[in-house]
TrEMBL record:
Molecular function as annotated in GO: ATP binding; ATP hydrolysis activity
Protein's UniProt name: ABC transporter ATP-binding protein
Tree of life domain: Bacteria
One BP annotation, GO: peptide transport
Broad class of the protein's primary localization: membrane
The UniProt record lists the keyword Transmembrane: no
GO cellular component assignments: plasma membrane
ABC transporter domain mapped to chain residues: 4-249
Subcellular location: Cell inner membrane
Organism whose genome encodes this protein: Rhizobium jaguaris
InterPro entries tied to this protein: AAA+_ATPase, ABC_Ni/Peptide_Import, ABC_transporter-like_ATP-bd, Oligopep_ABC_C, P-loop_NTPase
Record bears the keyword Membrane: yes
Family assignment from sequence similarity: Belongs to the ABC transporter superfamily.
Length: 335
């Protein structure tokens, strides 16, 4: 049984649909990347799963965590899942850290909440977690406030909080986007080593295919509220088949004969509620036929470990540069 199975998940805000039937599975211990341009529905998918959307949102379909159905679950049931079974971290640590409470105390409180430890036992566990995420001199720094830590260290503290409940799944929503290249690389390494140490699964939400390839063995590409391509990271980097995925690769700045080159995808992601008929990517795509503008392609298996939602997937003659030649905007070379 998968750890998490998302089936036909739909979300609408005040009647405007933003997710159109997401299917995803996360196996125990695996790391899955969720990529796509801003507004494709990556965050909303997991906020819906955890019951964190505002009241105006209507959620349909199913999110199963083992035997438990999360869509429509009671507030208490979802509170028990959040932190203890599934933890989520965000780009901005201030969304998780309270600026007026000492950092170690906040982590100790999370340990108390999720694990039932109290007093010194909770503080010791908080210090262990601070050490695990690489805060130097954790005993002394337990009493520091968040503003006394650097941006990267705040990100580490947020990860320590997320680990306080020993979750089976960590959803990391753009955890490195706001960080400079060196710190970004350190946080990616941290996620990789924590996963190896704890065995927890990771969903890594990012715009950065390079970062995703370092952390994840599978990737789901989302566009306008749908999954348009999913497969192993290796398969995706060998050859993307959906023209949108190919567009994401081409939009990565790379060094080509000593000159930086990138080809942005023309146009923008359509607004929810204003999707064109047929394939939502068709107006931006260079591989269309009439069919693409009139009919909606379903996500179907393409024979390898891949599924794609495209009437004209890119053929074998189109080769994407080998991963080791790709250099991301943040300077991370994918290998
Ligand atoms: N609370 C909300 N009310 C109304 N619309 C929302 C709300 N939250 C998200 N949306 C819309 O849902 C769509 C999906 O948003 P989502 O945040 O999931 O995108 P994303 O792919 O995670 O993008 P980003 O990378 O910018 O976070 C967007 O069109 C967004 O404007």
């Amino acid at each position: 049984m998968p750890l998490v199975e998302v089936s036909n998940l739909t979300v609408a805000f005040s009647g405007t649909q933003v997710l159109h039937g997401i299917d995803l599975t996360i196996e125990k211990g695996e790391a899955v990347g969720l990529v796509g341009e801003s507004g494709c529905g990556k965050s909303v998918t997991w906020l819906a799963a955890l019951g964190l959307l505002p009241g105006k949102a209507t959620v349909g379909g199913s999110v199963r965590l083992g035997d438990q159905q999360l869509v429509g679950a009671s507030r208490t049931a979802l509170e028990n899942v959040r932190g203890s079974r599934i933890a989520m971290i965000f780009q901005d640590p201030s969304s998780s850290l309270n600026p007026v409470i000492r950092a170690g105390r906040q982590i100790a409180e999370a340990v108390e909440l999720h694990r039932g430890l109290t007093g010194k036992a909770a503080s010791f566990e908080a210090i262990r977690l601070m050490e695990l995420v690489g805060i130097p001199d954790a005993v002394r720094r337990f009493d520091n406030f968040p503003h006394e830590f650097s941006g990267g260290q705040n990100q580490r503290l947020m990860i320590a909080m997320a680990l306080s409940g020993n979750p089976d799944l960590l959803v990391a929503d753009e955890p490195t986007t706001a960080l400079d290249a060196t710190i970004q690389a350190q946080i990616l390494d941290l996620l990789i080593s924590i996963r190896a140490e704890t065995g927890m699964a990771i969903v890594f939400i990012s715009h950065d295919l390079g970062a995703v390839s370092q952390v994840c063995e599978r990737v789901c590409v989302m566009y306008a509220g749908r999954v348009v391509e999913k497969c192993s990271t290796e398969t995706l980097f060998r050859q993307p088949r959906h023209p949108y995925t190919r567009g994401l690769f081409d939009a990565i700045p790379r060094l080509d004969g000593g000159r930086e080159r990138m080809v942005p995808i023309p146009g923008t992601v359509p607004q929810p509620g204003r999707l064109p008929g047929g394939c939502a990517f068709a107006p931006r795509c260079g591989h269309t036929s009439e069919l693409c503008h009139n009919s909606l392609p379903q996500l179907v298996s393409l024979g390898d470990d891949r599924a794609a939602a495209c009437f004209h997937p890119i053929g074998d003659s189109t080769i994407v540069p080998a991963p080791h030649t790709v250099q991301t905007k943040q300077g991370v070379t994918v290998s």
